[in-house]
Design a protein that fits this description.
By secondary structure, the chain is α/β, with parallel strands linked by helices. The protein has nine helices and 13 strands.
Length: 293
């Protein structure tokens, strides 16, 4: 079963739905308070496909809240695997089959709780690797290339993740108060804490969008940088601090890596992006909120 969350989606949602309906026995689409025009289109899609269930939220419950609605339906249905998708992340036609084939190829797969595809985007900003780790300070980059099976991932982006249903019985739902950012990271670290493993399957591909894109020059070369608005920056940095505080004792290497990522985000907002003052204020506000909560 697939669970898709939408909020004011563009036309890519139709591609996501087509791919999910072709690969999954059932699809649950949870819409977070999109416009009436969008809702009419989604209702038409649901009426045309008997395996598509549409849930219409009157208010935006956030990514985590909407995912939990879909996950509860999937758990109640007793399915073995649940696929999470964003409204703009398009799976390759064989992504689910490739994920499961990679899992079946593993002799010791009992504790595998989540399968992650190789991420790709048109702008070339997503890197084909999965951070993997043993314990403590052991942290390395497992290259997600065709044919690769990367073991013991630290976290996986939610969109494209194929999760064993019984994992949810142990780990619990997504963290609703996080709303959108770091929901998947917090869930992944809880999954690892419970003794389950995250595995990346290089043969499975998801075309993913990570934020908005801004083209700029770096050392005389034009590059595309992914970026976020000020309000998203506040959520990102608030939630990352919350995750640092919860998991630093068991994942110190990842926390150190993410602190470096936070500093890079500050540098990027300062040097390359527009609306710098608002974004830097939002980053500072998010850090403070994360430490206070």
């Amino acid at each position: 079963m697939a669970v898709i969350v939408s909020h004011e989606p563009d036309t890519r949602l139709d591609d996501v739905l087509d791919a999910a309906l072709a690969q999954c026995a059932r699809v649950v689409l949870v819409d977070n308070a999109s416009s009436e025009e969008v809702r009419r289109h989604l209702r038409a899609r649901a009426n045309a496909a008997s395996t598509l269930t549409l849930i219409e939220n009157a208010e935006n419950r956030g990514l985590a809240g909407a995912q939990n609605q879909g996950l509860e339906i999937a758990r109640s249905a007793g399915v073995d695997w649940i696929l999470l998708l964003d409204d703009d992340s398009v799976p390759a036609p064989d992504m689910v089959a490739r994920l499961l084939a990679g899992w079946r190829s593993m002799a010791d797969r009992k504790q595998v709780g989540l399968l992650s595809p190789r991420l790709s985007d048109a702008e070339g900003t997503l890197k084909p690797y999965l951070l993997s780790s043993g314990t403590g300070w052991d942290l390395r980059r497992g290259r997600m290339v065709p044919g690769a099976v990367v073991r013991d991932g630290v976290f996986a982006i939610a969109s494209g993740s194929l999760i064993r249903r019984d994992v949810l019985d142990v780990v619990g739902p997504m963290a609703g108060p996080f709303f959108i950012d770091y929901v998947d990271i917090e869930f992944s670290l809880r999954l690892r804490r419970a003794g389950f493993e995250i595995v990346g399957i290089g043969d499975a591909v998801l075309i993913h969008r990570l934020g908005e894109f801004h083209e700029t020059e770096v050392l005389g070369r034009k590059v595309a940088l992914n970026t976020h608005s000020a309000w998203r920056r506040r959520l990102i940095h608030r939630n990352r601090v919350r995750v640092w505080r919860r998991f630093v004792a068991e994942a110190p290497a990842w926390v150190a890596w993410d602190v470096a990522a936070a500093l890079y985000d500050v540098w990027k907002a300062t040097v390359y992006e527009t609306d710098r003052q608002a974004k830097l204020r939002a980053i500072l506000g998010g850090f403070l909120a994360g430490w206070r909560s």
